[in-house]
Amino acid sequence: MARIDVDEGLCKGCGICVHYCPPRVIELSERISPRGYHPAVLKDPKGCTGCAICGKLCPDLAIEVFR
Amino acid sequence: MAERMLMKGNEALGEAAIRAGCLFYYGYPITPQTELLEYMARELPRRGGTFLQTESEVATIYYVYGTAATGKRVMTASSSPGISLMAEGISYLAAAQLPAVIVDIARASPGLGRIPPAQSDYRQLTSGGGHGDCRMVVLAPASVQEMADLTFLAFDLADRYRNPVAILADGMLGQMMEPLEWKVRPAGKHSKDWAITGARGRPRNMVLNAPYTDAELMETNRILTEKYRQITEAEQRWEYVDMEGAEMAVVAYGTSARIAMESVEEARRQGIPVGLIRPITLWPFPVRAFRPLLGKLKGCLTVEMNSGQMVQDVELAVRCTVPAHSYGLGGGWIPNTTGVREEIERVWESIRSSGVPER
Amino acid sequence: MGEHKVFGRPRTLANLPFPYCPGCGHGVVHRMIAEAIEELGILERTIMVTSIGCSVRMWRQFSEVDICQPGHGRAPAAATGIKRALPDAVVFAYQGDGDMAAIGTAEVIHAAARGEKIAIFFANNAVFGATGGQMAPTTLVGQTTSTSPSGRAPQQAGYPIRMCELLATLEGPTYLARVSIAGIANLNRAKRATLKAMEIQKEGRGFAMVEYLVPCPSGWHMTPVESLQWIESTMSKAYPLGVFRDKGKEGREG
C-alpha cells in the first residue's frame, strides 16, 4: 500500500502532479488552503503505486511518498 | 644592513603586496599600471601565489570578491577608465564587508583620455568608489618608498575594518624609479571567522549582498556608518612641510606635492609665510591637519592635476572661513615649480591686499 | 509490514517554502543539486555562488552551505576567485539565462575557456523572470515577452544564444549537457547530469555545466502544466537536449 502526503503549507496548486500521475489518483481540492491555493489531494488512495513521480516533479517539494 | 632596492613605483606596489602576504592578484592590462600586472605574473607563481589575467575590469573586481570572501589577502589595480568599471564591485565589497586592496594609477581623463598622469579620480574614490553609502580608505603615496609602505598599511586597514582600501597614485609615480628600503613589519592578526571556506564543524557563513529584509539591510548600513565614523576618527594621516608660522597653506598630494614642495621652499625664501600640507589619506580627509591652524591661516591653495576636486574638501576643512584657491587642470597637465610658485605669489598677494575672503 | 518514506525533502534543503511562482522550474533543480551534494557526501567541502534573478535568495534554502553572492553575471568570476583560493573546495554556481547569457556572457566563456574547476547549473527559462518577464538572449524567435510584445522578430532582436553549443567550441570544458525537467524521463536524465557535474567537482577534474530547460509559467503566461508541455513541444526543439562534451577520466572524449 502506497500513499502520498501533501503539505498544504507548501502546495501552490500548480496541477503538475495531477497531470503527470500515471494512475491519475491526484486531484486539486475544492478547498482553499491557508496559503490561498487549491491544494493537491490523493483522491484514490488504493490506486497510488508509490512511484513518486508526483514528488519528483513537484516544484515546491510539497509531497512526501510512502510505501 | 637595511634591504634597499631601486624599484619602479608600479613594481614596488607588487613586491610590497607579496611581502604583506598577498598571494592573489587579478588584473587586466591598462596603461600606466601594466607593469604591476606583469610583475605579479612573473613573481606570484615563483612565490607560491596565484596570478590570473582576467577578461575585463568588470570581471576582475569579482574575482577579487570571490578570493576576498575566503579570507585571503587579494589585490588588483587599474587606471581611471578601468576603475570606473569596478565601481559596482567596490560597492559589493563594502556591502559584504570584505577586505581588498584596489590600486588606481590614475591617468588623463575623462573617458578613454590619454596615458599621461592625472589626479582627476580624487572625487570618484573619496566618494566611496561605488554606489550607496560605501566608503574606501584612500591612501596617496608621494614616492616609491610610500608606494611600498602604504601597501602594507592598506592591507592592514582592509583586514582591520573589513572594507576595501584604495591606493591612489598616478602614472608618474607608477613609472618612476627611486630607491626604497624594505622595513620589517610585524604581521597584523585579524580574525577571519566570517570567511567562506566550506562549513566544516561550524554553522555556514554567508558573504551576502542582498539581505532578505529591509531591516537587515538597514542594519548593514548602521554597521557601515559606524565603521566609517571610526575610520574617520582614527585613520587621518598627513604630513606638514614647513608649516611653522605659516599663514598660507599649499595643499597637495602625490606627484603634485613633490613639485609644490619645491615651490613652497622658493616662496619661503622670498619671505612668503607659506607651508605645505600633504594629505596621505584622502579619505578620511585629514581635517585634523587644518583645525588647529584656523585663526592663523589666511588662505589655502590646492595644487591638483585636475580642475579642482580636493579644494572642496579643503574648504570644508577650514569651514569656509578663509579662501581656498585651486590651481590645476586634468587631462595630462603636470604642474612645474615655477608655475606653482607664481601662483603662490599671486594668491598671497590677493589675500594680503583684499583682506576679505576672495574667490 | 511497516511503511517507509521513499521520497521527501533532502536534508540539505531547509524546511522553508520556495518563494517561486507556482510551477517554476527552480525548485526541482535546487532539489537535484541538494540531493547530489548529499549523495556524494561533499556538504562540508561545498561553497555555493548565487546569482541575480529569481534565484537570488536560494541561499536561504541551502541553509548549511557556505555561500557567496556576487554581482549580476559575475558568478563564474567569483567562483574562480574562490576555487583558486581554496583548491580543495567544491565550488558551484547557479545562474539563470539573464545572468549568464546577457550580462555575464564574458565571465562564463572565460571560466569555461580556462577549464576552471567549477560547476555551473544554468536554469534556462528563455525570459528575464525576476524583473517581470522581459526578453532574454535565450528567448525564442516569435516568443512574446514584455519587451517583445509582438513576438521576438529576428530582424529587430536577432536570434537566441545556445550556451552549451557556444561553450562546446572551447577546449576548456570537461562536461556540457542540456537537459529538461519536463516529465519523469527527462527529469531522471537531468538528475544524472547534475550528479555527474558535481562528481567532476568532487574529483577536481574540470569545468562542468548543466543547462536545464525550465518553465516560467508567469513569464510565459501559461499554466504550469502548459509550460512543461511547451518545453517538450517547442523549447527543446530550439534547444536540443543532449551531452555536448564529456571528457572521460582519462581526459579523452567518451
Account of the protein in words:
The complex is a heterotrimer of chains A (67), B (359) and C (254). Helices cover 15% and strands 21% of the residues of chain A. Chain A has 67 residues and is an alpha+beta fold. Chain A has a single domain, classed as Alpha-Beta Plaits (2-Layer Sandwich), CATH 3.30.70. The mean pLDDT of chain B is 96. Chain B has 359 residues and is α/β, with parallel strands linked by helices. Chain B has a 7-stranded mixed beta sheet with strand order 3-2-4-5-7-6-13, sandwiched between helices. A 5-stranded mixed beta sheet of chain B has the order 10-12-11-14-15, sandwiched between helices. Chain B folds into 2 domains: 3-234, Rossmann fold; 240-354, Rossmann fold (3-Layer(aba) Sandwich). Chain C is α/β, with parallel strands linked by helices. A 7-stranded mixed beta sheet of chain C has the order 3-2-4-5-7-6-8, sandwiched between helices. At the B-C interface, helix 3, helix 5 and strand 9 of B face strand 2, strand 3, helix 2 and helix 4 of C.
Offer a quick outline of the entry.
The complex is a heterotrimer of chains A (67), B (359) and C (254). Chain A has 67 residues and is α+β, with helices and mostly antiparallel strands.
Biggest chain pair interface: B-C, 39 and 37 residues
Order of helices and strands of chain C: EHEEHEHHEHHEHEHHE
Q: How far from one another are the termini of chain A?
A: 6 Å
Helix content of chain C: 25-40%
Major β-sheet profile of chain A: 2 strands, antiparallel
- Mean pLDDT over all positions of chain C: 96
Cα shape of chain A: globular
CATH topology of chain C: Rossmann fold
Reading off the top of the CATH hierarchy, the class of chain C is best stated as Alpha Beta
* N-to-C span of chain C: 45 Å
Mean pLDDT of chain A: 97
Strand element count of chain C:
8
Q: Spans of chain C of 5+ residues with little confidence (pLDDT < 50)?
A: none
What can be said about the biggest beta sheet of chain C?
7 strands, mixed
Percentage beta strand of chain C: 15-25%
Oligomer: heterotrimer
Rg of chain A, alpha carbons: 11 Å
In the CATH hierarchy, the architecture of chain A is: 2-Layer Sandwich
Count of helical regions of chain A:
2
Helix content of chain A: 10-25%
What is the H-and-E element order of chain A? EHEEHE
